[in-house]
Write a structure and sequence with these properties.
This is Ethanolamine permease. By secondary structure, the protein is mostly helical. It contains 17 helices and no strands. It has one domain: Amino acid/polyamine transporter I (Up-down Bundle), CATH 1.20.1740.10.
């Protein structure tokens, strides 16, 4: 059975995948933090989150270049923590990505329904989802080209917003009123929303195996990606917060068009921003499909999942993993439980971050001679990332106590599956092929 991915990605394409996975978070979601804290309080939350993702991505680049594997975090954890640790890391990645995708698809449906009221939002979400599944099945080269186009358009939309908003900045919108509304608790509650600016950025690791020259291309793609996202996140928030009242931003599903309507009135500019916002959502939907399909493929190839998911077609696309994983995502689209699935997705992300940083520390000690073409400033940078990730875990848990039981249930089912599946397969869980580069 053919289970080898094609090495076609260049640094610019890896950059597009990384930025594209995340960029929808610039267009919506982050603004709900202003229900809990002031713009000043949210700035603190953003700086904490930005510090984490910057230190995390530099640390993650070391892991991805040393182990350029489609399994990404599941492979790092497998080498550091053993087979079970690899499974939990891979499952956490799938939880994050598979449950983020339905939320993005539903947002696409809502945007399309707004522009064309006769089209039901859920139907539009499913059609968009299926369209990008088909594109992914055409192979990584085609998928990467599409991702590059929609990502560049989405970035252009953000620069348009920053450009037309900059002349209308009023700092009183940031400093007026209760400077630290909600106090420390408000900042804590805002952290999960600040995470939306960067959620899924680590997905580029699942494309590492498809890079032409992973040991050189991965650091370039990762570092350029996180730098791009930091600039866009800080610029987008600053312009939106300094041109609009926080009470208005916190009450809308589309903060950027709403901010422009407040400045220039309802007209072509806000409609154009709404239309470009679709490209941001398209980029994230498409990019995350690339991410979770590679994770499912890699886990099947390593023996965690049934082998048929490790099959690739003539274009080098893991077609079975793309289709099956996407069908699971579509089921969540139909449920419409956006709030619950977003929270569970966030828990998966934070679990993944913690396991990955622990894996880095263990591998430095356990395998010091491992070829590391890119080395992070150790141990300070990964330690900062690990400590902030633990803060994230507490913040997300405290902010979503009612959803913790769903998270515990999901992981309990996964653990039961792991032991039953490995028991039924006499050969057990195979070691991941660490020689793939």
């Amino acid at each position: 059975m053919n289970n080898e991915l094609k090495k076609t990605l260049k640094p610019i394409q890896l950059w597009a995948i990384i930025v594209g996975m995340v960029i929808s978070g610039m267009y919506c979601g982050w603004n709900y933090a202003l229900e809990f804290t002031s713009p000043m309080g949210f700035i603190i939350a953003i700086l904490i989150v930005t510090t984490f993702y910057t230190t995390f991505m530099f640390s993650y680049a070391e892991l991805a270049t040393a182990i350029p594997h489609a399994g990404g975090p599941s492979e790092y954890a497998s080498k550091a923590l053993g087979k079970f640790g690899g499974f939990i890391a891979g499952f956490s990645c799938l939880v994050e990505f598979l449950l983020a995708t339905p939320a993005i698809a539903l947002s696409i449906g809502a945007y399309i329904n707004f522009l064309f009221p006769s089209i039901p939002a859920v139907a539009a979400a499913l059609i968009a989802y299926m369209l990008f599944v088909v594109i992914n099945c055409l192979g990584i080269e085609t998928a990467a080209k599409v991702e590059l186009i929609v990502t560049v358009v989405a970035i252009g939309g953000l620069f348009l917003f920053i450009g037309v908003g900059a002349p209308k900045i009023e700092l009183s919108n940031i400093f007026a009123g209760e400077t630290f509304k909600g106090g420390f608790g408000g900042v804590f509650s805002a952290i999960p929303f600040a995470i939306w600016f960067y959620l899924a950025v680590e997905g580029g690791a699942m494309s590492a195996e498809e890079c032409e020259n992973p040991k050189k291309d991965i650091p370039k793609g990762f570092i350029l990606g996180i730098v791009t996202l930091v600039i866009l996140a800080l610029g987008t928030f600053f312009i939106a917060a300094s041109t609009s009242e926080s009470s208005i931003l916190s009450a809308t599903d589309s903060p950027l068009p709403t901010a422009l309507e407040g400045i220039y009135g309802v007209g072509m500019l806000s409609k154009v921003m709404s239309f470009i916002g679709l490209f941001g959502l398209f980029a994230s939907l498409h990019g995350i499909i690339i991410g979770y399909s590679r994770q499912g493929f890699a886990m099947a190839r390593s023996g965690y999942f049934p082998r048929f998911l490790a099959k690739v077609n003539s274009k080098g696309a893991p077609v079975n993993s793309i289709i099956l994983m996407s069908l699971i995502g579509m089921i969540f689209v139909v449920t419409g439980q956006t709030a619950v699935i977003i929270v569970i997705s966030s828990f998966g992300a934070v679990a993944l971050y913690i396991i990955s940083m622990i894996s880095l520390f263990i591998l430095r000690s356990k395998d010091p001679k491992l070829n590391r073409p890119f080395k992070v400033a150790y141990p300070i940078v990964p330690l900062v990332a690990l400590l902030i990730a633990l803060v994230f875990l507490v913040a997300v848990a405290i902010s979503n106590l009612s959803t913790i039981f769903w998270v515990i249930g999901a992981y309990a089912v996964a653990v039961i599956y792991y032991f039953i599946y490995s028991k039924l397969n006499e050969i057990g869980i195979n070691e991941v092929n660490s020689e793939i580069v």
